[in-house]
Amino acid sequence: xxxxxxxxxxxxxxxxxxxxxxxxxxxxxxxxxxxxxxxxxxxxxxxxxxxxxxxxxxxxxxxxxxxxxxxxxxxxxxxxxxx
Length: 83
Ligand SMILES: [Zn+2]
Description:
This protein is an alpha+beta fold.
């Protein structure tokens, strides 16, 4: 089954699972997820570029290239803006 990556639309309200994006394998017949199964916040499907690995490092790399800001978790509840 294909592996999809979902990320929270609003990272401020997201849980640890969807804030940084999570992977889920779904059948092509399945509907897209619209809400995080853990916290219920709205999520969107991240389009995977072919040939790239699906690691979180890669998510950050592509987010940076796309100009998104990224917050690095320093401690529980504390974040450092890294770009
Ligand atoms: Zn969540």
